[in-house]
Amino acid sequence: MGWIDTELALTALAAMLSPTTLTFSVLVLVLGERPFRTGLYFYLGALGATLGIGVVAAFVLGDVAADKSPGTPKTWVAILDLVLGALLLVLVLRWLRRPENPKRTADAIAQMQKVSSSPAVAIIGAGAALANPGMFIPIALKNISELDPTRAQYVVNWVFFAVVSLLPLLVALVLLLVARDWAERLLGHVRSWLERHARTIAAVILVALAASLVRNGIAGLTA
Predict the structure, then answer these.
(1) Which among 54, 23, 34 is positioned nearest to 173, based on CA atoms?
(2) Which pTM value belongs to this model?
(3) CB-based contacts of 61: which residues, under 8 Å, 6+ apart?
């Protein structure tokens, strides 16, 4: 696995462990009267939106960020890496310094309560808006483009990113399907655990991703 593949894996993992995405994904399952139905539509909305972006990028971006010299990105890509790495580090510092906000949690619960009782189309739309990889999408687009992919390869790599970034929700849906009572109890515990530890775990992954971006940016500018 090359450094670009490693960076893509870190990006997917960071998206998967994003506290916001995890919180909304868990809430949509624990607050609804029909958690599997609600969670499935929510997942389809998030996955569909994410896959759609990747398919478009395969034709628009392609291999624009690829460089002929392995390990030394193009100058503009190196600068972008440094900027993205710095932004991620700032984000981590803000996350860790920001105190818990009960109102934010209450607002998220109220929002997801409305979603859980909405028609299917509204739930799909909420999934597309609330559970997509968000700020990690540009990083993943850059990562895949640097691999010098064909359009088919771009789509395959993007499917990997999309599935991994939403893996906790998919796993929860499978558990609800095969062992609903146990899964619902587990989700209740997961919700409490996330409230205590999600930011810390996400911060560790983000620091690793930021370090990779900064390393690649420096390598590109000093090559």
Answers:
(1) 34
(2) 0.82
(3) 141, 145, 154
